[in-house]
Design brief:
about 80 residues; two-stranded antiparallel sheet; alpha+beta; single chain
């Protein structure tokens, strides 16, 4: 990812999927960090590698593409 994401975008992702949006096994993740919306959003904006991927977005619908069944359902309902 050459360009980072805006705080507004990451905030929307967080609102949709919660703390699952952050990759906690990356070296950039601070395990001492209080896992709150503000901290997670800031961490992802500062270190885009922490964004759990793939993120699927259609209009206001946002899901993580990690679960095959959820992805199939998401794609079936996209119009």
């Amino acid at each position: 990812m050459k360009e980072g994401l805006s705080e507004a975008t990451v905030s929307k992702f967080f609102d949709a999927v919660g703390t699952e949006i952050i990759r906690t096994k990356e070296i950039e993740f601070d395990s001492q960090m209080e896992v709150s919306k503000n901290n997670v959003v800031k961490a992802i904006v500062d270190f885009p590698i922490l964004l759990q991927r793939p993120v699927l977005v259609k209009g206001e619908q946002i899901i993580l593409g990690r679960d095959e069944e959820k992805v199939k359902e998401f794609l079936e309902n996209v119009k």
